[in-house]
Amino acid sequence: MNLSRKTFFSAKKLFFPQREVLFEFDAKGKTIKEGIKAPGIVLFGARPCDLNAVKYMDMVFRDDPYYIKRRENTVLIGLQCGKPKLFENCYCHYTGTFFADNYDILLIESDSGFAAKPGSEKGIGLLESRFFSEKGKNPDSLLEELKKEYVALTGGKMKSMEDIRDSEVKKLAKDCFSCTACTTVCPTCHSFVIEDELNTDLKSGRRVRLWDSCQLQRYTRVAGNNVFRPSRLQRVRQRINCKFRYSLEQQNMMSCTGCGRCIDVCNKEIDIFKVFG
């Protein structure tokens, strides 16, 4: 276990699998098997960018029984970053996601180890286990110290998301390969397609949900082979607006949490934050 770096992938796939069987059916259209596999798990060491991503996804999938069951059976143990811009390509200081408020337990590193702050009834119960001690620094005081450093860097305010420059969007689109690496590692991208897979007997099959990407032409293809966003510029513009504008309008929270993974994996090192100048 390495707690000194951010993970290559987010926790999204734990609650929203890349491929998920929704149910199985027979030739008469009758559901013959339906079940949600949701074993109890502990998500350990999720940093604030990923905790905030889970918070966003909770709103998007609030009516989805498959997602909700997995979330209910998960314990979130977060790990607070020690300073804004702790890792390369981190923008949590820009998106206002350096801190999080949705966790069962939050670990804050101190000189003597880690202080643990509960965030739910489940977390309070865990703190009574043998894995935790009442000794050590107060987690609230450690968070206050980090807050001072954060305010010194950002002024306590996140940058304006209204100043997206279309000229910069066009530059990014010229470099983009539409490889979908960015949407794959993004902790909040939730585009999907639903397909029916038939067995070889042609009498039974399964309905599956698969990850998709708004960066592919096929994503907006409809009957008649009409594509609503045929150009790469349209698709790149859609992603940027989705991250910084549409999500604010729909969920009152940006879907970009500043983790920087899209920049990490991009073959052309595209930095979407350059659209703000």
Secondary structure elements and their pairing?
Layout: H1 12-15, E1 19-26, E2 31-33, E3 41-46, H2 48-60, H3 65-72, E4 74-79, H4 92-95, E5 105-110, E6 113-118, H5 121-127, H6 139-154, H7 166-175, H8 181-185, E7 192-198, E8 204-211, E9 221-222, E10 226-227, H9 232-251, H10 261-265
Parallel strand pairs: 3-4, 4-5
Antiparallel strand pairs: 1-2, 1-8, 5-6, 7-8, 9-10
Helix pairs in contact: 7-9
Report on this model:
With 277 residues, this protein is of the alpha+beta class. The chain has one domain. The chain has 10 helices and 10 strands. Helix 7 packs across helix 9. The longest helix has 20 residues. The mean pLDDT is 91.
Summarize this structure briefly.
It is built from ten helices and ten strands. By secondary structure, it is α+β, with helices and mostly antiparallel strands.
Strand portion, in percent? Answer: 15-25%
- Number of H- or I-type helical stretches: 10
Secondary structure class reads: alpha+beta
Strand order of the largest sheet: 2-1-8-7
Number of strands: 10
Biggest β-sheet description: 4 strands, antiparallel
Question: Uncertain segments of ≥5 residues (pLDDT<50)?
Answer: none
State Rg: 21 Å
Q: Can you tag this structure with a few keywords?
A:
277 residues; alpha+beta; 4-stranded antiparallel β-sheet; 4-stranded mixed β-sheet; flat
